[in-house]
């Protein structure tokens, strides 16, 4: 009985999840006190790289552990059949946004406020440097995508992130100036690898191993509870991280800055989804693989990006804004892609 109620509640939350996320951002802007307090909770004095272990970092760990726990071992074993498609998707996840940022740096050079330009470029760095989001597998499943490829892309980019993320951060640091450039270089030189290794890669792999130990039957029973807890942690993470920057936006909105930032974010998001579709066409992927690649390249793990940006640049709260808005944009564009590219085709 409890399981059926949990499944029903999970279905309702899934249906309205994007609006729940928007609600968490509105709450962060108007009532940030609880989120700020949650950021200040220290569970251990030292963690990865000597940094304190916070409640939000633990939530990120549990979120990715649960994602790994829900991975089907049989689907992972089928990845060896199409290593080329997997490689194209993994490389595209890092290269496409990086190329976009380089192009954006030249375009934004004409913007009247150089500090706002640095905030946008630095925020985009945290988007580009993150592995593929686990949420992409849910969208791929809705579009009848290849689930082994979707899961494989998430795990592969997560495994590569301790190596590729510093490279992306160093590259974007070369496009920025002042404190922004210095902070990105310092982060890439040390803290990013330890952070991603400890709080992104390790929980994902531990979750996969734990799933193999407990078996598919136990995972099936626990699945509704895991999904519901994941939704809760995503909302809490969004609220806590956004509480550091959105209140200032709500008090003193800079309309032209918000407009240019939203335009850049939306353009990046559409470009990333389009690149996933084009990669599928170039590699000769079938319809199922096309769906998986499209959603994978369009959706990054912004929960990890927000946590890393919050930890690394607490004195530059404006840097969080591009990550926050990309998190919203990727779900809206995913819904449009699903409806226009895949569901309409399935109906025909």
Automatic annotation (TrEMBL):
Where is the protein localized? Membrane
* Name under which the protein is recorded: Na+-dependent transporter
Q: Which UniProt keywords apply?
A: Membrane, Transmembrane, Transmembrane helix
Name the residues that span the membrane. Answer: 16-38, 50-73, 85-108, 120-139, 151-173, 193-213, 225-245, 257-280
Gene3D superfamilies referenced in this protein's UniProt entry, alphabetically: 1.20.1530.20
Query: Which PANTHER family does this one have?
Result: P3 PROTEIN-RELATED, SODIUM-BILE ACID COTRANSPORTER
Which coarse location class applies to the principal site listed for this UniProt protein?
membrane
Which first-to-last residue range defines the signal peptide? none
Originating species: Methylocystis parvus
The answer to whether the entry has keyword Transmembrane is yes
Q: Which GO terms describe its cellular component?
A: membrane
Question: InterPro entries from the xrefs?
Answer: BilAc:Na_symport/Acr3 (IPR002657), Bilac:Na_transpt (IPR004710), Na+/solute_symporter_sf (IPR038770)
Q: Give the membrane topology.
A: Multi-pass membrane protein
Per the UniProt record, one Pfam family is: SBF
């Amino acid at each position: 009985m409890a399981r059926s109620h949990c499944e029903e509640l999970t279905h309702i939350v899934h249906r309205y999840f994007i609006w729940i996320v928007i609600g968490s951002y509105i709450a962060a802007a108007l009532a940030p006190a609880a989120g700020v307090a949650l950021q200040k909770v220290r569970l251990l004095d030292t963690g990865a790289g000597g940094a304190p272990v916070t409640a939000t970092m633990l939530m990120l760990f549990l979120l990715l552990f649960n994602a790994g726990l829900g991975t089907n071992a049989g689907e992972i074993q089928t990845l060896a059949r199409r290593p080329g498609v997997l490689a194209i998707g993994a490389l595209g996840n890092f290269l496409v946004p990086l190329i976009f940022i380089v192009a954006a740096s030249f375009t934004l050079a004409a913007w009247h406020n150089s500090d706002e330009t640095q905030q946008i470029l630095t925020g985009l760095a945290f988007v580009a440097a993150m592995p593929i989001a686990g949420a992409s597998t849910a969208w791929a499943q809705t579009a009848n995508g290849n689930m082994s490829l979707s899961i494989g892309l998430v795990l592969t980019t997560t495994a590569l992130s301790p190596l590729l993320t510093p490279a992306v951060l160093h590259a974007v640091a070369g496009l920025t100036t002042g404190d922004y450039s210095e902070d990105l270089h310092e982060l890439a030189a040390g803290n990013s690898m330890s952070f991603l290794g400890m709080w992104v890669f390790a929980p994902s792999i531990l979750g996969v191993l734990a799933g193999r130990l407990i078996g598919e039957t136990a995972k099936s029973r626990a699945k509704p509870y895991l999904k519901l807890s994941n939704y809760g942690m995503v909302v809490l993470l969004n609220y806590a991280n956004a509480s550091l920057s959105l209140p200032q936006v709500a008090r003193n909105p800079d309309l032209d800055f918000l407009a240019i930032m939203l335009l850049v974010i939306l353009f990046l998001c559409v470009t990333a989804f389009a690149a996933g579709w084009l990669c599928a066409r170039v590699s000769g992927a079938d319809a199922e693989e096309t769906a998986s690649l499209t959603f994978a390249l369009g959706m990054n793990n912004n929960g990890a990006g927000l946590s890393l940006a919050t930890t690394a640049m607490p004195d530059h709260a404006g840097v969080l804004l591009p990550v926050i808005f990309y998190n919203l944009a990727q779900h809206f564009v995913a819904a449009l892609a699903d409806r226009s590219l895949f569901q309409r085709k399935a109906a025909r």
